[in-house]
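Worked example 2:
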Amino acid sequence: MEQIQKLDSISYGQFIENYLKPGIPVVFKNASASWKSNRQFDPDFFRSHFGNHKTVYKGKEYSMNEILDITEKSTLENPAPYPILFEIPLQLPELLPMVDPIDMGYAFPNWFRNKVMPYGKFGNSIHLFIGGPGNQYSLHKDMYHTNAWITQLYGEKKFVVFPRDQEELLYPENASFISPINIMKPDYEKYPKYKDATPLSIILKPGETIFIPNGIWHTTVAASHNISLIFDQLNGYNFKAWKKDMYDYSRKKSKLVAIAKYSLAQTLGSICKLSEMTKSY
């Protein structure tokens, strides 16, 4: 994986063979053009349609208008709180028809869209992220080995990803999905192996979508005031890793709970696989 490619177009079959199966990130320049709405999803749009909708960050409630004001004024020296996000199906459900088909002709099958999959659990989420200059996400790989799809609705965001074979250079805490390394100011004395890491970066622009395969370590740095739509994907290609995570994350608390979660994962996966075969969802 020498660079992250930006593609004007590609067939679904080519995407599966060249990127999904080998686990290689890629950027689609205009996949979101398939959405039914051709609106500009800029701050004015969210102010006029969802200005009074509220969410909570660290125990404090914020309205959409307040979040847009705060992040618009964010600076490197005085960054806005981050990440303040909205759970789209629960807090902004009116947005969903506008971004249909959410899979954009590439992110399918997605077993999280099956009705048996509980929203907000086991990696199943659809989020709206709003940020500004100075905002930076932690270096991580997504829980439950889900595939991540991020569409930049407004502004620009820098994505930094690491090849699969570099996990040990990132010092994951307790073999978890979080790294303590700040890629903007790495402490080479504390984390000397990070010197050998070879991160790849790319700027995601409005209308572009990045596919980040499961197990890929990544982070983001805001290049400007920005708004992103993010959702996760599960299907037969990452089901085995997802099922293992269901067990492993619970095993730290209780082996009995872990066994129950593993059994649940197997059942849900079987239902989703059958639904996929019969195209009933």
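The mean pLDDT is 95. The first strand starts at residue 5 and ends at 7.
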